[in-house]
Amino acid sequence: MRRIIVGISGASGSLYGYMALQALRSVGGIETHLVLTAAARRTIELETDMAGEDFEGLADVAHRDDDLAAAISSGSFLTDGMLVIPCSMKSASAIAYSMNSNLLVRAADVCLKEKRRLVLVVRETPLHLGHLRTLSLLAEMGAVILPPVPAMYANPQSVEELIAHSVGKALDQFGIANELFKRWRSP
Prior knowledge:
Blueprint: E1 2-8, H1 14-27, E2 30-36, H2 38-47, H3 52-56, E3 61-63, E4 81-87, H4 89-96, H5 103-113, E5 117-122, H6 129-141, E6 144-145, H7 159-172
Parallel strand pairs: 1-2, 1-4, 2-3, 4-5, 5-6
Helix pairs in contact: 1-7, 4-5, 4-6
């Protein structure tokens, strides 16, 4: 059984995280460990008709963000890595500088130190020089920076298709087969 940690920060775009959890559940054979920040819970309420519990219901294990003793806070707890979707610049900055004040950041820090896959779906625009330097530092440390930038070649017809494209690209980073988006084929 594979294990993937899913972190959802307070950045706008909580539906990216929701669709990622749905997709991981539908694949099967993947144990998901979810951590929602307090800001994520608030953003979920502001952006959707759902609550944090709706997201937690899609995960195999839901961890409290203030539980720094949770299994995912230790390198001895084996995982395939972590997907932070969406990832706020606040969370990205905390991860870059190992400011482990919450479980989302600590779990991401563990992935970096253990050389496990860390995919950050960073949701901020425009980016100033400080953001770019933080993202560059994270990339140098081994994180995959994957902003939710949909491909227009797929001719998306809905917001759901735009979200699915980014979620599919994120799952690709873990080698998880998916058909969430139309892949490029030679014309």
